[in-house]
Amino acid sequence: MYLFLRKILFFFDPERVHYFTMNTLSSILKLSFIRSIFKRKFLIENQNLFTNAFGIEFKNPVGVAAGFDKNAKYINELSYCGFGFIEIGTLTPKGQEGNPKKRLFRLKRDEAIINRMGFNNDGVVVAIDHLKKARKNGVIVGGNIGKNKITPNERATDDYLICFEKLFDFVDYFVVNVSSPNTPNLRALQEREPLEKLLSTLVIENNKKENPKPILLKIAPDLSNDQLDDIIDIVRNTNIHGLIATNTTISRSNLLTSNEEVNDIGAGGLSGKPLLSRSTEVIKYIHQKSNASIPIIGVGGIHSAEDAIEKMKAGAVLIQLYTGFIYEGPSLIRKINEEIVKYRGGANG
User: Into how many domains does the chain fold?
Assistant: First the structure.
């Protein structure tokens, strides 16, 4: 059914389709019999799915990556699709429109997406209003935070602190996003000195809380091994709780889509199947170099249950979907969870 609907939806603008689909889902899930259908079709409960990471108990290890529900409007809807956790954002202190449209593009032959959204969101205060109204249905919610476009890098820490303080009572963990390619100069914050300063400041503020919350860092797939070594050192030096590997890539290598079409699309981060191998390589490298001491959420190119298990074998304790969810639909979540049950059951047997 979903693949049939996808053929129709893919005739239209990706950004409009996203909101149309989610708003439609929101409407139909108000009907109790539709909720019952979703529960039977997509939800699975099994002790082998329970996952403890960063001191948090997840009912299953499959989450939706940041960017899908930027403003925390669809927590309920996504929970009925079977996700164990939902990462909202990226949120900034003030709402901003992001980059000019058109800014979201499908590469159908590659089962990929290019986006240059630019942290478009309604601001952290609006997201909090939505979170207050959400029925989480047992899912964990993470807050992905960033800086406003107009904020210079030397004042970026102020923006991250504002989001951290305002969101603290409403999310279960935080993700520091300095790896999006769509905000000018943002990735410069991945350099060792500014990144260590930013994370240390957040950790200090976190430790002042009665019940500190996990802080993770989301990194780009385009980092060199030397840069990944620096990331490992920074995690240890700042005592943050883990990493998300990886964000979208600026690489355009090995695509089936023609160079002409890709060039016409222009700048932006690439996600989907072409990112699978590189994101897994980054996970494996960090896992091995850190002696498995750094918890990792694996994301990038997961379009099948086998892709998800590959991420876990590389060292990911949790995984996230975005583009694969768009191309494959909610049945992908159940398929992944079923395969994880088998994988972990074999490991435990």
Answer: 1
